[in-house]
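thought: fold this chain, then report.
action: predict
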Amino acid sequence: MRLFIMGVLKYVKIGLIVLFLFVEVAAIYGQVRTYPLKKNPSIHHFLEVNPNYEFQPVKKYKFGQRDTIELPFFDDFSESKLYPDSSKWLNNQVYVNNHFPYHPPTINVATFDGLDSRGNPYRNTINKDFNGPGDSLISQPINLYDSSGSLYAIVDSIVFSFFYQPNGLGYHLNGEDSLRLWFKAANNLWIRVWSVGGQPATSEFKHVSIPILDDNYLHKGFQFMFTTHTRQVGNANHWHLDYVILDKDRSSIDDSYNDYAIQNTPSPLLNSFAQMPYSHFSVNPSSHIVDSVHIRLSNLYRESKALQIRHQASFNGSVIASNEFINSTKNIGAQTSAVRNLPSYSSFIGLSVDEPVVINRLVEVRENGVANDYKRNDSISLTQEFSDFYAYDDGSVEQGFGFDQNSNPSNIKGQVAYGFDVAKEDTLYAIATYFNQAVYDVSRKRFTYRIWKELSGVNNATEDELIYESDELSPTYSSVNNWKTFTPYYLDTILVLSPGRYYIGWKQESMYNLNVGWDKNYGYSKTPDKVNQYLYYKTFGNWTNDNLPSGTLMMRPHFGTPKELYASINQIDLNENSIKIYPNPAKDIVYLSSNFSHIGVCDVHGKQLLEFWNSSNLNVSSLKEGAYFVFLNDNSKRFYTAKLIIQKK
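observation:
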């Protein structure tokens, strides 16, 4: 393109020169963007694993049959996962999580979006021009009689309060969207008592306090309900709700609470990656261990607090590191939040050479070693894992990433490259990509995977050094691993990489958004708006990482001996030489060293072509010449893999 423009400059007038320059600049800036998700993969995963799940198999608090729940009503969602607590709420349309909100009052919120309780778009369609009801959250009936059996009175100062946030790390709202609050009166009518309109920008969580000043709400079956009115856009138009309280003897002008809490997930134990192969980590562990772990704490008190934090790690049931409660050198101001750093530790060096290696972590916060009244939000459990891949992402997806198909000319080619510093010589056998089912359907679009050693214009490289390119492929929205939608592409050649910087990514022949998963929590709590400096894109000229959104791409290079990836069975990775498969290369019949309960033969793209049950020999005559992977399960559900070559001559 640049050579073409240089030739044109000799022959055209100034007006045409300006036109060409404008087209190129417009293509360079604003070329990539993120899009909302169509579904909620976390809920899909849960329901796939738990097909008989019911939100309320027995209605514990069904009004008219049993007494209603008593004051105080409190839920900060810290004890819930995916769905709200069924002893407090009547329905489960909202999504309880900690990866969509931005600096919540306490860990976990209830997120309202355009998806139903099963994580699918309402009415199973996406139509941004249609407005209608979205999620709702309805409380169990609440008894507003006092302990003597008499009605509470207005003088009892019953106040309802909560925190809310528009957008967060989700996708944008506009003026057509709204969050609404309703109270149920004694005559069973729902009365709207509060509402707020959507806005495109994310703001801090806002506190709302509503005193009950109407006797019509003081009855035994009082309920409150949050609803949304939204455009039909799937996993977007997010509202986040936290710290819901209904209680007596309160002041409606007091927005402080006797509580402090963990706000979000602590950072990993690694300084560059969320995960990496343990065998690679072990080459030079000190270069990968983070100097300190950071975590964000919130203080809801009306006075500042000097909080203490403990960080513990265990491996295979044994504690390998524990920092006792550490006094903070700085107070956290009243009704504010702050990042606090914890010393890291190196005691997980030399634990094991077998992957995955899983370190269980526990972080707790206290004041003077004593927990406060709300204990559940004062601790968090998480893991640090080492598997056979490098990952910047935490596995949770917030948006989809790719080229902006609306602003770029359709005939422009696009490329995306993702840099990784490989720590040891090893075989790269697969690239795993998180393909989103997003608003725009690109399931039939074509692209090729690429691997580079150098990118033109990056680190003084003068030209691209391409070392691998796949055949043309289309996105695969896989249901393996129970709807965790990383899809592996297995390389069809042996690619041994020496230590150093490499780039994985893709090339597409036209402009469209491939909608690869985008993790907005890449910067964690310390630098939440962080942009991954190792991600580049290219249309014209050299590679660039200008104008990237905050977050990171969800692609992972896998190293070592090939194995089946993202499957829901217990995997045992053995060298393929441990499995006797002969003849190899083969033409028509293949024999195995023993009988296997299930055998699958896949091409290098991970697509299963043949399947056998309870067999020790395979008829592979239908396969074309080339390389294939054979995946085998024995009766103990252990998993093995082998490589098979087909030659017809």
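thought: worth noting. The longest helix spans residues 14-28.
final: tokens above.
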